[in-house]
Amino acid sequence: MNFYQLPFPITIVFVPLLVCFLIPVFGWWKRTVCYPMVVTAVSISFISSLGIATRVLQQGPVQYFMGGWQPPWGIEFYIDHLNAVMAVLVTFISLLVVIFSKKSVEKELPEKELPFYCLFLLLFTGLIGIVVTGDMFNLYVFLEIASLSTYALIATGEGRAAYSAFKYVILGTVGACFYLLGVGYLYMATGSLNMADLAGILPSLYGSKVVITAFIFIMVGVAIKMALFPLHIWLPDAYTYAPSAVSSFVAPLMTKVGAYVFIRILFKVFKPEFFMGVLHATDIMLWFGIFAILFGGIMALSQTDFKKMLCYIIVAEIGYIIGGIGVANPTAVKGAIFHILNDAVMATCLFMVAGMIMYKTKGHGISDFKAAFVKMPYTTVIFIAGALAVIGVPPTCGFFSKWYLLLGGIEAGQWAFVAALLICTLITIALFFKVIDQGLYIHAFKDASEQMETHQEIRSDDAPLMMLIPGFIIAAAIFLIGIFNQPILRGIIEFAVPKGLGG
Amino acid sequence: MITELFSIHYRPLLATLFPLIVSLLILSSGKRPNLRESWTIGGGVLLFATVLSMTPFVLREGSIECSLFTLFPGIDFAFKVDAFGLIFATTSSCLWILVSFYSIGYMRSLKEHAQTRYYFSFALAILGAIGIALSANLVTMFLFYELLTLSTYPLVAHDETPEALHAGHKYLAYLLTGGLFFLFGILMTYKLTGTTDFRVYGIFQSVLGSTSKLTLQIIFFCFLIGFMKAAWMPFHSWLPTAMAAPTPVSALLHAVAVVKAGVFGIIKLVCYLFGIGVMKELGLGVALGFVAAVTIIIANFYAIGQNNLKRLLAYSTINQLSFIIIGVAILTPMSVTGAMIHIPFHGFMKITLFLCAGAIMVVTGKKDIDQMAGVGREMPITMIAFIIAALGMCGAPPIAGFISKWHVCLGAVQSGQLVFLAVILAGSLLDVVYFFPVIRTAFFEKVPAAETLGRDMEEKIEVVKGNIETRETKRNLYLFMVVPLAITAVFSIIFCLFPHTFHIYDLAQMAVKDIFGGI
Amino acid sequence: MLEFLFGKLNYITYIFLMMVGFYAMMAKRNLVKKLIGLNIFQWSIILYFICIGAKRGGTIPIVEGGHGATHVIHALQYVNPLPHVLMLTAIVVGVGTTGVSLAILLMIYKKYKTLEEDEILGRMK
Fold this sequence. Notes:
- The complex is a heterotrimer.
- Chain A has helices at 8-29, 34-59, 81-108, 113-132, 136-155, 161-190, 195-201, 209-226, 234-241, 244-269, 272-278, 282-301, 306-327, 330-361, 372-375, 377-391, 397-412, 415-440, 465-483, 485-496, and strands at 62-65, 76-79.
- Chain A is mainly alpha-helical.
- Helix content of chain B is 74%, strand content 3%.
- Chain B is built from 22 helices and two strands.
- The longest helix of chain B has 32 residues, at 162-193.
- The mean pLDDT of chain C is 87.
- In chain C, helix 3 (31-53) runs antiparallel to helix 4.
- The interface between A and B is medium-sized, with 28 and 33 residues.
């Protein structure tokens, strides 16, 4: 088989699914074999995603019809530039988190590795399925696979995890049901469930109330999944109390995949003319984005728990993305899509750092960072890379996506958005320097009993190598994506920006 | 490829690589202080040599351009070594060597903690300064500008006392907010003109007709706030508060890197971004001059009331920086030359003053002026250097400050902006007023009876620090501090008598010729 | 008005059910009641899908003779099978959700010894 015949779209989704079912079987026979299987499965997905991405860059969108049934009767996997970069992103981050999670799971969830990895692979399948599918209902199925696994995984955490997971169940299922409802209305109006097909049929139906209702239901459902303010309530508790490996995996990916779905439905299924011309919804989106940014920033300031602070930052980052879409000119949308990529990378980096701190200090508050620069120097370096990226200091990737978002806002004259972004930058500076201070300045935060210790007595006791290496790779990625942003933008992301946005 | 790195074309990249590599080497040799310090000194010497080696080339050819990769459409991560940039680069690199020697003496005498972090941040700060000096466009400069702010934060808060942390936070808050204004200005510039390069006639002429004057003036002020590092009022208060830092850090802030980066940025803003013609059109020269004039007057009055020596020097710096800004705001060739050469001249003079203040603190433990009675007799070399530098600040010959003040005043007279002339002269007069008490107290006042002045310096250090050290080490450490400040004082005189040292004057003239070429 | 009411009866029913479920989720204190509300919510949507496909006079969408059928198939006479298929999936999803939720509720009960929301919040501090 030559390269172009390899069934990458299948392997990317079904290999993890298959391995997920095999894990309990093989694990019952011999425990230690399950971790290598997980790594292999995710690696195969990663290689498949690279293969798909290469194919998309060379030849254009890749389509795979399930069971040979042509669309619109059959389900198809449709991967174009936007998908391809998301697929690579999801699989890459998953691979890093899988490597990262081994030590973390051993410590936080002893004896439960087998079910953990089983659910992990199921979640991974769900996420990657959402990314590659080209069918609306299929997306719902994968969405629910991912969500159910997430609920279960979060509930395994400590403290309030079970209750937070239940809250997430309620809200998340409501969201998915809204999405399903919207798909139902669309089906009623058009008779099709295939995204490309819908894109063809819908323009003539834009004025219809059914279609508008469908759109609103779908968008609200996706907004719940994406944690757009004010539907973000489930996020802080759920991600804070989840085990470190789970939050490192879910926090960067789930909301970003939700944002991807938002963009796909907004731009590819319903063309830009719909929400700009018919609904005039850009302003609403913009203001939701601005409120999300400001709310996330302000709530983050008052937190003493590091992970909760990160969760509110994620809420703010989603605000950047949605606000960027709300500005609705090519620069801002380019920035928003690039920001999906960047935010996933930054969030992974920071949650991994939280995991490393938790591994060593059993806690994830800001005070657990005490003397981190001396005790855990490599972790601190990774943390500073992530912090600089969120603040938006060049040459990290965060600076470049902020540039495009700001430039887009200035070009469109949306000064409120520009101001919100700049204010949030200031807030994140205050946030992260609060933490960096704890880590960097040993003497300043010692209480009386510790004053006697001298500098030499604090020895370096860093997180294990298996946790550090993915951290370094992500930190390197933060800088590389930033420095090489031009090839990424011009080669991939610009193709994902729809034509027809105001210039 | 490696040999290409050493070619003249890539020399600016090499210049930035030296401090970067040095910083990493410092991190790795934290356990061996002597090795760590030798990386600093060695890197400093190599950096200075690299910068000097670029000077003849630039004097001949005009500039070295080195573009590395694309950051945004129309904006590359690029270096452009021109005459003016070399002035700043020469200053920073030369003073890095001297401050590093001084730091060795200072830090080891006081047995300071976290020395590795100190030298590491210092190297990164120099990287930031050199990068700013050699950058070709606003975005590259912004990158190094933020690096400078971030790397100097651990230096300002070095002592980790609540006071030092407060100083550090205030420092960060002011400068990073300024950075945001800077970014906003860059974005507006990019949107209006499609580029952010530094060019000799500026990049705004093409949009002068199509954009409202108010917009351009607002952009100018955004940039000005961005260059808050130049400590112009009312955004100056981070600088006196930052005096909570150790003395070599204050020297770095005031003489070597941080505030110089601020005025460097302002001069670039006026001459290479907006351009002299556009500045005159928009009336921004007068506005800028007004801001600077107010700063000079008020800073001088603050200085007169100061008892803490370092705070006095801080206000003196604010005053001198606004002098540079006035020089640029007058918009004549003479005055801009004066402004440009004042960057190195003031750097050398100010660093002398700070190194003296630090030496006094180490040896006698005194920080306030009214306690420094008789210090002149105890530490003669130090105080003579202090006098030389103080005279230079006032603009008295034969110290370098005279030359730059002469040029700016001449420029003011030539263009008929006599108000600014009056402000400068008044400022110089007030300089004398506040430096004089220091000199008088140090030399001419009797020591209070409780102090016994007859002791050796070595004994004094032992008493202050309370531990026993050999005389040899004491003497060596003291030399590490005294020799650099003596060198800078001597250089201050040399610069006056031979302004062509390190080609400073030639570079300034060349730069000014380019900027004013078409006007 | 009456015509509208009876004409759209299926839609009104499903909306009514959905709101009942929604109310239960929001207003009830007991977590199991919330879960029941969630179930009603999901089931109402399934009802909605089914009634989209319904047709007056349509028969169940099973072809006589199976795969080997040779007679002409008049699609109009059959009820739309697609929503049924979709809803089979949705029912499975609903069952899965209920299962996971019950497991989580079990964990909560073990930890806090109660399933009333206000008591749980009190015991959490």
